[in-house]
Automatic annotation (TrEMBL):
Entry's Gene Ontology BP terms: inositol catabolic process
GO molecular function, one term: inositol 2-dehydrogenase (NAD+) activity
Reactions that this protein is recorded to catalyse: myo-inositol + NAD(+) = scyllo-inosose + NADH + H(+)
Stated name of the protein: Inositol 2-dehydrogenase
Organism: Geodermatophilus pulveris
GN (gene name): iolG
Amino acid sequence: MALDVGVIGVGMIGQEHVRRLDGGPGGSRVVAVADADAGRAATVAGRLPAAKALPSGEDVIASDAVDAVVVTSWGPTHEPYVLACIAAGKPVFCEKPLATTQQACRRIVDAEVAAGRRLVQVGFNRRFDPAHRALKQAVDDGTIGAPLLVHCAHRNASVPQHYTRDMSIADTAIHEMDQLRWLFGQEITAAQVFTPRRSSRGGELQDPLLVLFEMADGVLADVEVSVNVHYGYEIRCEVSGESGTVELAEPAPVRVRREGTVAGLVPADWRERFTLSYDVELREWVDTVVAARPPGGPSAWDGYAAQVVSDAALQSLHAGGRVAVELPERPGLYR
Ligand code: ISE
């Protein structure tokens, strides 16, 4: 069976997902798109064999032609679109963050619980990256003994004009918040943000940042967030355990040695670094929707839990100090 998908928001990430979903190996096609910029929606639809540009995201969700929805619009619009999908009983893949406040994420969780079935998957793509999966496998297998410490770095070559100080936490480090919860299968219990000497390349931004997370079992994770490193896009993670360490390897496919140097290419941006993860993520999502199974990827609860941690880290960024993370009990739908 082909899955007919509607896409709301066809900016950079939206177009990436459209490319994968239209005629993708899982048997999906894009039949409707909408964007705040109607001209852009028309251009994207014009490139696709079966897609129409519709006036609004609400029209995409309401369309009888649309079986499932992908939300890749601006973060503050996620909540109403995801709630409308739940009300319409349509599966929805929503890019991260699920919504921009924990209250909004909670309303989504509550709506899904009231509907009594899982319809939402959140775009925390690292869970689908082969290297991150291998890292988790090594931790789960006990290869390095009990984990004790984690060292991560999240580096962007540059960020767009509209990127604000809070986005280093809410838009960038939120990936590590989900990754740490997923890697260890437990919650983050506190966050503290440190503000080192600022890079002269960061303009008004507080760049870099160092965030310290405490996990429920006492593991400590430090995360460097640098968003103006210029040399490329780099994601690092090393877990230090009682009997060894495991870390993500360099993503460069080859290493060249010549004239006294060793060199390997650094990806330019997240699209290049995580291309395979997006392929797997959308393929697995399409497969579960077609099979009428609940989504296997990050749930609305995961989106909510990451947002609660993000809010704690933002509080620490603004006011300093360690901020405890308090999560309510996980509803039965997500156990
Ligand atoms: C972007 O939205 C992403 O998801 C990237 O993975 C992250 O590195 C970047 O900072 C975000 O803006």
